[in-house]
Amino acid sequence: QVQLVESGGGLVQAGGSLRLSCAASGRTFSSYGVGWFRQAPGKDRESVAGINWSSARTYYADSVKGRFIISRDNAKNTAYLQMTSLKPEDTAIYYCAADPSGDGRLKAEYAYWGQGTQVTVSS
Length: 123
Prior knowledge:
Elements: E1 3-7, E2 10-13, E3 18-25, E4 33-39, E5 46-51, E6 58-60, E7 68-73, E8 78-83, E9 92-99, E10 112-113, E11 117-122
Parallel strand pairs: 2-11
Antiparallel strand pairs: 1-3, 3-8, 4-5, 4-9, 5-6, 7-8, 9-10, 9-11
């Protein structure tokens, strides 16, 4: 069992930056893949970024490539999403999730989810 808690969301102007954190409980976190997802009002949830258990592989949605960076620190049981050059269309609730397979691909089967953190980008 893994429990995930996101933090770091907030209000930022377009062009600004935020770093989201995903703190995990449970000894197995280091073997899990981690993904970040987002859901804007009235829209379906979409995948944003993923990272495998060892940080050897990362995956990004086209909409965030070159602007967002996913990383993790297994010693701290924490994953991160560094977001730069933020746009109003990045406004959403951001969720992190854990993939027991360890792969962290965007289409992986994510079994554990956090409660989300709100990111609002003003124009």
